[in-house]
């Protein structure tokens, strides 16, 4: 049985004027899982996170952490969470180590030096921990922020757009230590609008758009999709034959139109063994095929397929 660390049920935030900027959001997180909250700017990721950490009031719905309801047991819930939502503030003139000590003093339970060393090691800040924070790069400050957030051994770490401003190396390192934390049983919720990043970092992603969850995807199952049945195919036909091609595609039940890239280019979703069947149809319809290129069913395509109005419209038309 897998433990549920976070459960968000019908979480809603309605703002003045009646607009629901977070609208009936549901998802769960298991122990040791890295879950991505993925969506374009304005999707409602930060608002969702702020409600979970109790920074802003929710309009309705519920949040429970380790089985405890946030409304009934706020204090206990807060001690189970470590979060960086806004940029963490540090004392610039003090060392990273002193900052952590200071933070530990403010927390209820005393932090041992051993625990501080442990978290510093986890985020790989050993070499710089005695330096003053004002000398830190953005990536180092962020690590210090994570170190601070996990100092009290929370079950759940929440990071809003943690890769913002990090270079590729910084992003890779963040990924590595989040995985290390996951191995130790700490679950992490990260938000981002970058798909490939989420794909590399997370076990699962919750895709949000305009306040709503539009899909929850298992990264591993997405990867399996590439190898097994459905794959994305880019079809390229002779210019001017787009319309007749669209008709052929519509006729083929097992071929799904995802997006019409150009007049004569289509992004399709289909089974591998449907490729020659489709090709035969084109030949019989006297359509010149210039290319059938199979592509990865990446999260990115899935995301596009789900969020682009064009994609949705075309799918509807194709049905
Ligand atoms: N207090 C508020 N009143 C009205 N609208 C708000 C309020 N707070 C946020 N919004 C709007 O709600 C939407 C969601 O905002 P939110 O910051 O949660 O999105 P986000 O997914 O975090 O976006 P980003 O990727 O830009 O960080 C935005 O359109 C924002 O302008
Ligand atoms: Mg945000």
From TrEMBL:
Residues in ABC transporter domain copies: 6-235
Q: Which parts form a coiled-coil structure per UniProt?
A: none
GO molecular function ontology, one term from the record: ATP binding
**What Gene3D superfamilies does the record point to?**
P-loop containing nucleotide triphosphate hydrolases (3.40.50.300)
Q: Sorted alphabetically, which keywords does the UniProt record give? A: ATP-binding, Nucleotide-binding, Transport
Extract the InterPro entries matched here.
Answer: AAA+_ATPase (IPR003593), ABC_transporter-like_ATP-bd (IPR003439), ABC_transporter-like_CS (IPR017871), P-loop_NTPase (IPR027417)
- What PROSITE patterns does the record point to? ABC_TRANSPORTER_1 (PS00211), ABC_TRANSPORTER_2 (PS50893)
Q: Which Pfam families does the entry mention?
A: ABC_tran
Would the keyword Nucleotide-binding be found if you checked this record's keyword annotation? yes
Family matches, as PANTHER family: ABC TRANSPORTER, ATP-BINDING PROTEIN
What family, per the record?
A: Belongs to the ABC transporter superfamily.
Indicate what this protein is called per its UniProt record: Bacitracin ABC transporter ATP-binding protein
Organism, as annotated: Salipaludibacillus neizhouensis
From which lineage does this chain's organism come? Bacteria, Bacillati, Bacillota, Bacilli, Bacillales
């Amino acid at each position: 049985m897998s433990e549920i660390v976070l459960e968000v049920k019908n979480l809603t935030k309605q703002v003045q004027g009646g607009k629901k900027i977070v609208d009936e959001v549901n998802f769960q997180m298991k122990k040791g899982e890295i879950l991505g909250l993925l969506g374009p700017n304005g999707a409602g990721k930060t608002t969702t996170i702020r409600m979970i950490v109790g920074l802003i009031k929710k309009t309705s719905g519920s949040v429970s952490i380790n089985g405890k309801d946030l409304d009934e047991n706020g204090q206990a819930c807060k001690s189970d969470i470590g979060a960086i939502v806004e940029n963490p503030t540090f004392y610039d003139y003090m060392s990273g180590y002193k900052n952590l000590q200071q933070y530990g003093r403010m927390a209820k339970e005393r932090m041992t030096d051993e625990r501080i060393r442990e978290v510093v090691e986890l985020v790989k800040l050993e070499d710089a921990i005695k330096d003053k924070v004002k000398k830190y790069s953005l990536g180092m400050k962020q690590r210090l922020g994570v170190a601070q957030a996990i100092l009290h051994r929370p079950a759940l770490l929440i990071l809003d757009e943690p890769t913002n401003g990090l270079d590729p190396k910084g992003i890779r390192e963040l990924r590595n230590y989040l995985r290390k934390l996951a191995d130790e049983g700490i679950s992490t919720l990260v938000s981002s609008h970058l798909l490939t990043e989420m794909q590399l970092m997370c076990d699962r992603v919750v895709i949000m758009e305009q306040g709503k969850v539009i899909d929850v995807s298992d990264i591993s199952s997405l990867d399996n999709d590439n190898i097994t049945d459905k794959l994305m195919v880019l079809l390229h036909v002779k210019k001017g034959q787009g319309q007749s091609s669209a008709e052929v595609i519509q006729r083929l039940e097992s071929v799904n139109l995802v997006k019409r890239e150009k007049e004569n280019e289509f992004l399709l979703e289909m089974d591998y063994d449907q490729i020659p069947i489709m090709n035969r149809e084109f030949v019989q319809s006297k359509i010149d095929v210039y290319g059938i290129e199979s592509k990865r069913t990446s999260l990115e395509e899935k995301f596009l397929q789900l969020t682009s109005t064009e994609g949705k419209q075309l799918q509807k038309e194709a049905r």
